[in-house]
Amino acid sequence: MTRATIPVVETERLILREWRPADVDEYARICAIPEVMEFMWPARPATAAESAYSAVQLQEHWLRWGFGHWAVEERETGRYVGRTGIKRHPDWELDDQNTEVGWLYDPAVWGRGYATEGAEAAVRFCLEEVGRPEVISIAHPDNHASQRVMQKAGLSYAGRRTWDARGIDVVWYSLRG
Known about the structure:
Elements: E1 9-10, E2 14-17, H1 21-31, H2 34-37, H3 48-65, E3 69-74, E4 80-87, E5 100-105, H4 114-130, E6 134-139, H5 144-152, E7 156-163, E8 168-176
Antiparallel strand pairs: 1-2, 2-3, 3-4, 4-5, 6-8, 7-8
């Protein structure tokens, strides 16, 4: 994968960029933290192998769809702090052409607004650069922090449902461009 394939998006405090080999070890460390994975699917810490596979899938999503999740770097320190971006979920029953904004950050940076800053950039990219008519975001009903990020990024509550393919209850938010 080349830098030409994955655009760099800069915000005030973050750089959303292509994944680097060193990011995968940090991503695995973050995904092994129970609090990080509490509301993810599956809701358990990931093994290093699962995290590495996930990182590959996130990168391959860029090749297939022309959008995906970036590695997120803190501008001030150059440190990898998580991932954010947009992706499709073919098993989302309401719309198999969906484009979901999502994120996962190191707890060391929670509470700094990075998730919102990254989500806002990803939403703009989705609507303006990719040209998708709608962006959604999906969360566990008890994940109030993510729901606040969704609202701050401009998405509105769209409903609560069971994601049948995964057998989990979720809330989802939406923004039409």
